[in-house]
């Protein structure tokens, strides 16, 4: 009998806004991404193994950075 298990991360785009990138300095769209990591058994995700993390991605340079709490609250 085989037992297939592991963890898998999944990204979901929550929203976007226009802003200045801290890395490249360009005014471009900044995308807010929510990343969840779940335990899976036989390729079926069952439960989260860590709290969801939020990142901001610049569409100009493609760099990811951690999102500040102020960026998570809708304006």
Automatic annotation (TrEMBL):
Top-level division of the source organism's lineage: Bacteria
Domain Zinc-ribbon: 20-66
Entry-linked Pfam families: Zn_ribbon_15
Name of the protein in its database record: Zinc ribbon family protein
Organism listed in the record: Paractinoplanes brasiliensis
